[in-house]
Write a structure and sequence with these properties.
The structure is a homotetramer of 349-residue chains. Chain A is of the alpha/beta class. Chain A is 31% helix and 20% strand. The longest helix of chain A is centred in the C-terminal third of the chain and has 16 residues.
């Protein structure tokens, strides 16, 4: 079978490197180019020694225009603000773009600029961009050339809450998402905030009421329920490498029961390959999804308070970034949706 | 200065051992007896080698009646159900009891029996028992012979939320406490749930809507606001040894501002030695309280949702158990309230 | 392509589970039976939730005789003493056995019984058994029906030292192997020794001068240099899940240089797929091999002391157990040696 | 009792901060000045929030000459090369200096300059400097004004090996010290090497055959045995915050027995307050010394190899730095040697 050619721009961040790992095992993909501003000129395996004897590619500087002539798909793993200034309609005429960054996720230029505090230079592409959550936008993803791959907190939050909103089962003014993330979510840049001795044996919240994944979650939940949703989103940093757990609290609407909730999830996800609804009373744990593209979802109900409590667990670098990007690639190129990402998680690791 | 004599019953659990450490440095205390069912006959330092060359006491079987003739204070660090069956009015006539367990915390026998699923055998002592949260019951603690030392989640939750309820600033039907605890909170007993390879690099919730600290928190918040409070309490297990962080969400009542909130906390705690209100925008982190008796409290407000978000951080074995027990002892014997527990936390550790 | 049928006996320990993960992705293998004494009757995915939606097999009790009629290969992941009492010449006439336990590794019944303190009941099979280190016994492995898969410390120690002994470059009375292992090496059974709060943030040695992997290492190094080798082997427990690092110290023989050492390693391993000799000055780190079947080897020389210092790093559950078992299976069935185990490690995880 | 006045220069590194913690609890000390180049002008508690409500001191720039007029003792916690250029005979006429850095530890300017690769500017003070290991130089420490506090690896190595050399029990050409350290040993500066996700779940060696603590250990062991000692020293980085474990290997000389070894240790340390010789068969673990000034020493002998294996465990920031500095201060000012550092370690933490 002929393989498509792929490039990863920004391959030496954690999401980029995880993407390289998955793509290098993907039977339909030839990995042609890896770029890195920090390490250009070096071999990828000198930056990530786990690829020693596995992958032998030199890192080049990124030039999206040139790459678009050479490959069938370009993955972008870049800080926000760059993709929207580099990708053009012309690029999209020549190659597909799967952007792991934030630039094309929000449909509103205004909202983007408010939360990200930079001008959005690619407004003319926002219509073409499809929000890359396959469980919701599978058909649209198949047809587009520009996929805006969701953030890690976002994927976990939206997928774990979507059926409640889609089916109008909860009060929309009561949504609280308390999220906990491993440290890889903070990236590979060095700072006191990710120093081992400052992070190990510690838990803290950050960006309460101001995290940039908030509007992304609100956009998608609003789309689902067809009215404005405002959420409370609180991220915490946990002393572990990988994994996100979200614990969400919502008031069940009068007239509905916990059974309605469970049925809504079952209906929504019964055919999904990467969504696992846990049995009654089983709590999602990040260890069971680590190294895999699965999201585990647990549903709970408290009769005393009337709250539905929903938990989602994902591997932030896989279903929260690179695995989902490959799932999107599979869809948009017509490959088997699970190709390259079908394995069980690895445990204990 | 003459010293009081003390006994620790159940000294070889983690809370018991931490209590021994604090008491062995306390200038007003002579540690006379340590008991342990699992290790009786052995020396305490053979169970906890950190006490090698520091403390030389043989572990005896517990017999509260006999001990009550010998010492001025008995600390109980026992599983629930035992203290209420062993302590009597006669005991309390001879010695003071500081119970780190659950038996005398709930004022209602019915509520206790519902959540703990055992018969309460010491109902006649519930009136004498004082809930051992010095910041709220300081005067009562000074006068009693039976102190019911609060649980770890409870201390952190109540202290971090009390001013909101005391001052009637929030909607009482909206209280969500999302708590995260280190693994020492689960005790020293072995099980797959505390196996290193199952716990490390993982986060999970447990006992959603059913944790036994729930009614304790509700009791005290109800007392504060003088109307029935029902809370949503969710504990999580975090891969670290010590520390609890609670993140609580409450709707601010119409007519109040975030400034009202901050003032209420300032007024409540301005003279407290062990409560630290953090500056605006500073997040509590468990690392800053580890090894100390402090609670750090951070206050946040989200204009978009109208939620007050409150975080509390404590060392679960100190302010959440043994340090607070010593604080109570100091009060009830008329020592300086901070004696033995006045040090800064130890960091990084 | 037709697939061979495989059974894993003892599939619910950590090595067994990792083996199931690798085999379930192996294109030449149909996983037919999984056994477990502790969990028989349950589904494998109820014991290891990472296999939810991936693998649907019920755990049965082990009966090697029956299994031998049904499958082409049986992997044994059992405590020592069992395999040697259950496997017979008749079994080996019907199926291949790859034993991840200790019973067939030592060629001397006497040595086995001295170190393991049990009678060896399968002495008549010791001749047929091949020590399953493909880098040394590749041709023998291809021909046998009974493969004794080496231990984790052993694999790392022997492979990292073999060229020094094979080429007679070092003084044999000076061998010190200081080994460090993650906690999965201790297995899944619960005990205070693997309690999170007792293991986390701690390092300790164990079984100094008495660890059972010692005679296995000595046997193979003795074979290499053709004279008796006695080693000093010290294992340590490190607060991490996976990985072994060995740091070995040996006196270079007079007349040889560090270049001779480097050449010996290059010659020995230049065609090996799973041995990575690191560049000068690069230290092996367990993070780079985690999740892979590689061993990374670093060579150092101290002019001041005349010592060669060799470090090896492996994933104890893969190259130190299950990955190597699959490598052996590939060889003995004529599959591509790297099939199912060719991927890069996963990082950071 | 009157208190001495103390200054800590370089108070915002981990050793400096731990020193501040100990001194702030020391009954004979008034902490007058804290200096910091990175944080001058800020309050110490803004850098280390564990000191919130405990200590209220503004950080000033360091000026050793000025400080020497104000205080009785100056602790220096600085990178190497600074102390030797700033301290003068005049300084030492006015105050005592306890230097936690490397500048005055090595008696030979040549050796210092070879290993540290900078010129030594304070050669005229090397005679006055006393190597601050109280268990060996107690009397000299009492009399000097310049104490060169040993390094962390050094303290653990020397104290755990000293009796073997002092009593000439081992072959001096066979000394191997395999050391394992927590990450605080690497300091608070940020780099990829201490990034949480690069350090967690990983072990590696560093500076094989080239670590700067090597000559310090050799100097003291040479002094003990009165002939030149060359050692093999290998440090490893372990994923935990605090603690050092050294595992040392030495050949017992012909004619001596393991009993001779045990007696030598007993004789050397029987009156030492901070040295704990563990019972036969007990392994030192860093968790038992964490938070304390103790060194735990375990002795082992392998009849098969003739090796004595000695393990030492310390808290690298206490007995390996700040606790020992206070022990030295106590001695040189005539306080009780254990004042301020007499507590048991804190566990589990």
């Amino acid at each position: 079978m002929e393989k498509i050619k792929a490039a990863v721009v920004g391959s030496t961040g954690y999401a980029g490197e995880e993407l390289v790992r998955i793509l290098s095992n993907h039977k339909n993909v030839e990995l042609k180019f890896l770029t890195s501003r920090s390490y250009k000129g070096q071999n990828f395996q000198d930056v990530y020694s786990n690829f020693n004897k596995v992958l032998d590619i030199n890192l080049i500087e990124d030039d999206i225009e040139t790459l678009s002539n050479e490959v069938d798909v370009i993955f972008l793993a870049l800080p926000h603000g760059i993709a929207s200034s580099k990708v053009t309609k012309e690029t999209l005429g020549k190659t597909k773009i799967i952007d792991l960054g934030a630039d094309f996720r929000l449909k509103s230029k205004t909202v983007y600029e408010k939360w990200y505090n930079v001008e959005h230079l690619g407004e003319n592409l926002l219509d073409e961009a499809v929000y890359g959550l396959p469980e919701i936008y599978r058909e649209e993803i198949k047809k587009t050339n520009l996929i805006a791959n969701p953030g890690c907190y976002t994927t976990c939050s939206i997928l774990s809450l979507y059926p409640l909103f889609k089916n109008n089962l909860i009060e929309t003014n009561s949504v609280i998402i308390d999220a906990k993330s491993g440290v890889t979510g903070a990236g590979r840049s060095v700072s006191l905030g990710v120093h081992f001795s400052e992070t190990n044996e510690n838990i803290k919240a950050y960006k309460i009421a101001s995290h940039r994944h908030t509007p992304e979650i609100e956009q998608e939940l609003t789309n689902a329920i067809k009215k404005d949703v405002v959420i409370q989103f609180t991220p915490h940093l946990i002393p572990m490498n990988r994994g996100i757990l979200t614990t969400s609290y919502l008031k069940l609407k009068d007239g509905f029961t916990f059974n309605d909730v469970k049925e809504a999830y079952f209906e929504q996800y019964k055919n999904e390959k990467f969504v696992r609804l846990l049995k009654d009373g089983i709590y999602p744990e990040t260890k069971w999804v680590k190294g895999s593209n699965y999201i585990d979802i647990g549903l709970f109900f408290d009769r005393r308070t009337g709250n539905v409590i929903v938990q989602g667990a994902i591997d932030n670098l896989i279903k929260g970034a690179s695995g989902q990007a490959v799932q999107n690639m599979n869809l948009t190129f017509g490959f088997d949706e699970i190709e390259g990402i079908k394995t069980a998680g690895i445990f204990p690791v």
